[in-house]
Amino acid sequence: MQREDQNAINQKFNQLQQILQELVKEREQLIQQCEQLEQEREQLRQHYARALNKVDALIARIGTLEPPG
């Protein structure tokens, strides 16, 4: 009986160890995805800032145009 209990404990331990390894792997993947998303976010922020600057420049130009006639 004691041997069976020890085998059951070992089996559970191995299962938990495998689950832990999978969680660590998944955590690393999530960290990489977050880093990639942060890079994409920064690229979009820069793109948005450039677009706003172009819009501001166009508005300023329109403000200096003389009306026809």
From TrEMBL:
Keywords, in A-Z order: Coiled coil
Coiled-coil region: 6-61
Entry protein name: TIGR02449 family protein
Domain of life, per lineage: Bacteria
